[in-house]
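ok here's the first one, seq then struct tokens
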Amino acid sequence: MIAQKNGWQGHWLALAVCACAGPAWAADAPVTNATLAELRLWFMVMAAAAVVLIGVFWSRGLPLFGALAALVLLGSSARLWLTQPLWFPRLEIVADPPENLIMLLILAAQAVLTGVVLMRPAGREAVRGLFAGAGIIRLFLLMGLVAVFCLSATPYVAYGYYTAFGLQIGVGGALSLVQMATLVAMFAVAGPDRIPRIPVAALAVFATVVSAVLAWTAFDRVPHVEDELAYLFQARTFAAGTLWAPVPPEAAQPALEYYLLEVHDGKWISVPAQGWAIVLSLGVLIGVPWVINPILTGISVWLAHDIVRRTISRERADMVALLMATSPWVLAVGATLMTHSVMLVAVLLAWWCLIRAGEGVARRAILLAFIAGLALGWSFVTRPLDALIVGGLTGLWLLRRLPGGIGQVLACAVGGVLSGSVFLLLNYGTTGDILLTPQSDYLSRLWPDTKNAFGFGPNVGPPATSWGALDIWVGHSPAEGLLNLINGIASLNLELLGWTFGSLVPIWIVFIWRKRLTGFDRAMLVILVALVGVLFFYWFTGTFYLGPRYWHTALIPFLVLSAAGIEAVKDRLPDQYHGRLHCIILLLCAVSVVSFTSWRGVSKYDGYGGFTGDIRRQAQAAELSNALVFVATNANIGSALYLNDPFLPEGKPIFLRDMGPEQNAAIIAAFPGRKVVYLGDSE
């Protein structure tokens, strides 16, 4: 805590000099995972992309539009450069490194050029039309929401630095105002007003490829949090055709110990819900587990498009697919070994089948309802809480088909029971109790005095240890639930679309300007409120890795409402500007991929959590086989342990935590006949 307080004092000096600073987070994490050289290279690529934009539009006789488009890219990139990317992102406007001054000059240039354009007759007319059509009070409300949710309040509340929070809101809101004003200026100059429709197949392939590239490069095909290592461990166990691996020799257990892996009752297992691990085992069998989530990401784009096309319109579906395929949140989740992509596909597949089934009683409709039930049941095996909420609401909607659709209702129920019962069978196979999950059993021993549960009370959540700003108060309370909710909204505002002025702007527009919602919109809103509302009672938000990942099952509701907000803007524009709006949205989506997603890859995901592929590369270079590999590293030891085959077979290396000479000797004795290798950061 002393170090954290000193960090805050240093930032107060920056406040006095630069009028904007941020706290030192509870976890003593570096400001960024990237080196300054890597960030410089990233920004040089952004500058080159901006030059290309100018050249493309200049060649078409649209130089001013091209300059504004380039500033949208450069301004977003400059703001990201000034943003501390880890844990709770915030602006850090200080004089070191000197490139920060260049970024401020770029943002100033954006403000100046935008102001010049808006002061011209066409610009003044655009501003007058904006205020007349939108209303001053509503515009001020929108900008207030943009400013308030431009960063998380959690660390500022945790350490009591409310003045710094206010300054961050002020500076962040001002930058967002400039960025949004630039978009208004793009309607006041000559520009493209027609854009070809992008086929959904192309968007699905694009999402798959970008996620795969992220998985190969930034994520380095390694786990980056303990959950991912646990899923991969269990996937390898399932790929071998068993529910658990044999217990390692007792001497080796401390060197193989890792959070969410448990040795108990003669079994070595991972404890999270296992639906994803079963799917991931297919990737293990073909030798490339990291490709499964990118493939699922592309499938989810196609399913989402067809669902929205059938329930609302082709135009809305195209927009949802575009936003989804370019969402940094979607692409990053698809590049990980986390469970969320398969959960999303299961839910979307269920909805797609039920929508296709319609209200008939034909054999095909019943078969589709049965498949929908299987998908919903599998979502329960994957993420039980999300499945109970979404599955329950979907079931209530399906009951509307009674009495004529009794066959569909029964078929869906049977399918759900059949696949969902796998959850109970897995519980019985690992804990001996169909209602006791391995994770609950594990945490009951790891946290004997508290509980990982929903609700309020002093014993809800982890033990009172140093979770810092990730869980600032002991237990859970309505106040912390509200703070977690605000933190989740701020995180989603950054990650969902990658629009640095605010990804939630289209959703704010829906409610501020009272966009008329379709029946499907309202259904999505109910699901969104239910999922987010239930998680209000959970002690943790988990936004520090992949944004508000506990809300990921509500992705389609968020995107459907975002597309509705864009429609609301279109409805208030003269017809001649509809094509221009689509061009600008496409530009923003392109910027989110080119700038925001690559920034996340360079500054955060590469080496996140101390996980790297360095141990894997050292092992490959040494051509290890049948060796005991003792690893001493400053990185996360999971970077080595994830390489293990759970069965520790002869002929394959066993990676272990270096426990020191005495304990290592006992481990060597437990594995006679194996050569011994030592690896570490200095190797």
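and now the second one, same deal
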Amino acid sequence: MRLSQMLFVTLREDPVEAEIPSHKLLLRAGYIRRIAGGVYAYLPLMWRVLQKVSQIVREEMNAAGAQECLLPQLQPAELWRESGRWDTYTKAEGIMFSLVDRQQREMGLGPTHEEVITTIARDMIRSYRQLPQNLYQIQTKFRDEIRPRFGLMRGREFIMKDAYSFDADETGLKRQYEKMHIAYCNILNRCGLAFRAVDADSGAIGGAGSQEFMVLAEAGEDEVLYTEDGQYSANVEKAVSLPSDAEPSSFTAYEKLETPGTETIAKLSQLLKCSPTAIVKNVLYQAVFDSGRVVLVLISIRGDQDVNEVKLQNELVKLADQYASKTLLSLTVPDAETQAKWAAKPLPLGYIAPNLEDSYIKPPKPAPAGQVAANPVAPKFLRVVDKTAVDLAHFVTGSNEAGYHVVGANWGKEFELPKLVVDVRKATAGDRALHDPTQTLKTARGIEIGHIFQLGTKYSEALGATYTNEQGEEKPLIMGCYGVGVSRLAQAAVEQSYDKDGIVWTTAIAPYQAIVVIPDIAKAEQVQAAEKLYDELNQAGIETLLDDRNERAGVKFKDADLIGIPYRLVTGRSLQQGKVEVVKRASKESQEVALEDVVTTLQQWLLEQH
């Protein structure tokens, strides 16, 4: 392709809306163009990158035995109601674009396709003889992000590969899951990216085991905790560890002390000269279930620990049936405005004790005859204790009176230990590993580009997708789900590999492998040599750009660096010796190569890259 004929415009300054390097560079280099918040056009250079990533994904999925198909983007609400996810996706997480068609049917633009593919399996799979199956697609998905940002990292429209497997039993599922793990590692290795596969929370997709594939980058939104022995790595939302040992409390007698201005653990431990590990802090959350029921959750946890809200949410989902619900819509720390809706009197914030009286909750207003009360608030606190606080003795905690704490408190004496004991502490770097306490957790930042799930029978049971086994029994299909963000992966590659001059693509996914630059198009010998090289390289299968624009050489060199083509060939002064200058973009290494050797030299370098 000739740059003089390409829709190609670069920017010298960073766009104001771009926050991270990869977003800035893709805009500046003319790869993408913003159309609306979280919605981007993929321009010719970017589309070539996306096609290459898609092809690598396609080849690895095919090699793993998966079959490519294409599912509808527009999905009927009835399917999502069958699975119980319509309200979750349109109200709780609120990420589904939903609409009503001219016949008043509710529809949604697919952020994911479990319901559609399970319906197809329900209609087409009858016998164990048809199993296993693994179907995948590469297509545009939609998420109504509250705050789209970072370009293609968190967009409202994006390209994704999602695959769905169907098996007769858990053994088959595990085989499929392992195949997908290998395929994902192959995809990322072929793209030339540094990554980690980490244990992850299954989130709204559901299911048992799941793994995320993280491209390592400083700007990554996710924190990964891992051990240097390579035996453990997990997203911080899922990570588990051994907390540090609690220091014995210095208080032996129960006593109420005046502690003004100690709303935080740090201030309290400094005033009382005690370790945060001797303090029980009590955190209040507001949980809203899909039945509309509002539950106020009071969790007691050791003072030096923080609550992992993902883990807490998972524990609360287990209790959903107690509140005539299927799932949790939201979990928040209620602000003053929210508290005013249900608090009978001001809360002693910063000084709450584990036995905060239920009288702080207003009694529910009776509903008019024949009606159900809207968003009824449970009249009692749901009291929960984290495992880190269970064995504490003579601890410090709140007194339910502003400006005062109690010391020397004990469970079973001054305070009743909550019946619901959970593990919801947030693991942090420096914690000891469960598998080997001599190993401590290290931290890294990552960009999630892939996620694989062992779904089990969550969707097949909900939608009635069954098969007949060898004994003639009807059984639910065992499912797996496997996603790769294609457009996200492309930007993650930029976030991992760039320098002060621009993008540094790997040869596997660069839009072109080489660019021939004519420093001065007024010089016939430069043009002639460049045209010949351009033709020879393309004929040899080396994807090559020709910068034949009527621009200064410095502008062309800057643009070549900015767009990140792996090899730059310059038909400049060295032509007098029958050579061209060849510059490797990644290392900036420059050398002169004889014209007749250019093709074989590049072929050899490209071969070494694979």
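notes on #2: The radius of gyration is 30 Å. The CA atoms of residues 212 and 451 lie 4 Å apart.
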